[in-house]
């Protein structure tokens, strides 16, 4: 049997952590079984669906490299097919039109609640057939009254529901557009989906959907409902501590594989393994290792994994990941130094790609930002004006721009002025980079070469001169 899975988001918001995780599981299951993975956009709730959400979902999946073999299919392009089946069901009595007003349904509901009866539709319209052609109606599924719906959830085990707990639920709205529970079944059927992996908030929909499958005499797919994800306060994931939007992690410079690795483990585990390559995920993925309880989203753990990836990735891979951020910062990396050499300076000390690409600014740009505060700070160093002039002249005389020659000059200055290393390197670091915290400053001076180094020192000598003069 060819495995076919799907990710079927409703485009009513961005791609969130939970959505990305179900997409990942469905994708992995199809990939590890040489199956097919389909992307289906469930946009039949036309008041809440929007193209911005579709784009955001697709952007997120692409960034995570969760690639689909077919689609995206939009359910609103398939209305003809749904209506054809609804008509069939109306004709064979598996569905019926309901003309009840909102008012009547409200009264019914209130009465039931008051009398301790579970609120459900009372089949009032079941025998109306087509008598009220001009009045608005919805279409309801005629749910069986007796017996049970039983399915063996791949994660949760046997789940049994009494049919008398289910309603004659609406399968087609007044506007002629089917509801999720119906269109989803028709597509799962037409697309020959073998395994439906989705969030456990859908567990209550599954018996309804199975009853539709049964009424159409079709084979029922396998189901797996994954646990929910909570925030570290034990409540539903909210925006309070971290974003629930996958694309925010892209904009913040996370490594997609690191995020994938993290969300994989939110609800699934394999031995005590923390770090998985994508091919390891495909190799080990199975339904046995799911956890049934809810999982806690822990941003610290995600950051730890992200940093691990950044520190251990090949330079070539970091390069391909960081290029979009470099483009965004409008850095011209076609000039020297070679980007690979720059990455080597930073990859062990950065938390994410955005941070790293910010460091690249003082490597590739000519000018750096020197503000009033920085100047004040530099002026605190004794003899700084004199020192800078001497450094400038010494650097200017260097014939061969080697790490050793740069180092020697810094030592000469240190001895000449009887300073400690900090008092030579700190002002130099700020003048060259605009920052207090950088990798070894000799390395940076070496890598940005003579022209840029002299330019920046000279620039600062001028600024300091004017500053002193006018202050
Ligand atoms: N459109 C549903 C949702 O976004 C998908 C449910 C399913 O996978 O069947 O929650
Ligand atoms: Zn009715």
Question: Can you describe what's shown?
Answer:
- With 471 residues, the protein is mainly α.
- It contains 19 helices and twelve strands.
- The chain has a three-stranded parallel beta sheet, covered by helices on one side. A three-stranded antiparallel beta sheet has the order 4-5-8. It has a two-stranded antiparallel sheet with strand order 6-7.
- Helix 1 links the parallel strand 1 and strand 2.
- The longest helix has 30 residues.
- The mean pLDDT is 94.
- The structure holds glutamic acid (GLU) and zinc ion (ZN).
- The site of glutamic acid (GLU) has 8 residues, from helix 5.
Task: Identify the notable features of this structure and list them briefly.
binds glutamic acid; 471 residues; mainly alpha; three-stranded antiparallel β-sheet; binds zinc ion
Give a short synopsis of this structure.
The protein contains 19 helices and twelve strands. The chain has 471 residues and is mainly α. Residues 98-100, 124-125 line the site of zinc ion.
Span between N and C termini?
82 Å
Please give the share of residues in helix. Answer: 40-55%
Radius of gyration: 32 Å
The secondary structure category is mainly alpha
Q: Which small-molecule ligands are present, each listed once? A: glutamic acid, zinc ion
Overall morphology:
elongated
- Residue ranges: pLDDT <50 for 5 or more in a row? none
Q: State the major sheet.
A: 3 strands, parallel
**Strand order, largest beta sheet:** 1-2-3
Strand content: 5-15%
Number of helices: 19
Q: Give average pLDDT, whole number.
A: 94
DSSP E strands, number: 12
